[in-house]
Amino acid sequence: MQESKDLKFEEINEGFSAKEAIDEAKRCLNCKNPLCVKGCPIEHNIPGFIHQLSMGNVGNALQIINEKSNLPAICGRVCPHEKQCEGHCILNNKGKRIRVGKLERFIADFDGEMGLIREKLPQKNRGKVAVIGSGPAGLTVAGDLARQGFNVVIYEGEQELGGVLMFGIPKYRLPKNVVKREIEKIADLGVTFITHCMVGKDITVDDMFDRGFDAVFIGTGTAIPKSLSIPGSDLVGVVQSSYFLRMVNLYQNESIDRKDVPLRVNDEVYVIGAGNVAMDAARTALRMGAKNVSVLYHKTEADMPALRTEYEEAVDEGVHFLWNTSTVELIGKRKRLSEITIQTPEGEKIVPADRVLLAIGSRPANRIVSTTEGIEVNDTGYVITKERPYGMTTKKGVFAGGDVVHTPQTVVLAMKEAKQVAKGIAQFVDAKKLLEE
Hints:
Structural class: alpha/beta
Radius of gyration: 23 Å
Strand order of the largest sheet: 3-2-1-4-15
Distance between the termini: 62 Å
Shape: globular
């Protein structure tokens, strides 16, 4: 395996042991007005599950978590806790915040390893819902509706389930066995999965209604990355970061050969953009054997969209950062990238480059919209939805949520919206059934 000997893909942040978790839980002040809950997008009962854990009641703690989240082992690892629950913790002022994320992760991992008893589920006779996409939004809608007695079927275009959780987040941040374990828990709720079925090609939304579905949810995210409009952007060696991360994950799953990964050992790599995807791409490039990796960002360090911890870890691993620097031109020899012209605070420079990874955003694909009459999108291609019932598109019975509706967000924000959409779907189907009766 040709990758850096110094940086590995094993998970870099270790979880708590049982004693560490319980000791950490005992530090919680059980505030009467818990600021951590206000900082959580899905308003977890954080003091509740931490108090149960402090007494050793892991099962009760998990039950409280399940009231709000279907993906705790994932959220415990990739949520921006420093900006949300932990950032609002009253102890944060003293630099001793409760490590809420690691506690949630411990509870979820303990459940996964020990196989705690699942909650009782109602019969699936309330209605039938199709979910398109198995990323965080689709899994959340499916889990919430299954718990409420709906028969849910998830359609996924890939052979592997998980969407961005499986292909867009590196293994060192989110091990793939954790994603698979969380998906198995969704399956245990009675959700059915159909893989390698591309909606808009193999089946349409109208076909789904013909097959007896009462509602359809679109949670396909943003599949089309944005490109740079500068000379040389079509050169060999200019690659989308999302594609690069996907190919690395496929290689690690032994689905493709190393030569298919768009990065060679000892490449001089530049990443354009400074969000979390850029950090993932830069750190993954080092792990795959890049000689040097530099991030180019046209604004200052203070304006960087990425989490501070992600940035600091990237710096520690050897990623270089060039602030107030923009890319003017990509230069090639025989149609392959060889140099880039950059505008820096010191003036224009030409630097050697073997690979440029673009991380400047993405937008939704139109495969589903173009094959379904009545679903309207805005000028930038995002699906238009209503407030009542929440999440319904301009086509009756078709709902949407997550990144397909607005600019890409974090996993937990996609979950937050998906939970609201699940309520809207339930209200719609219940009203539909009542009218039919």
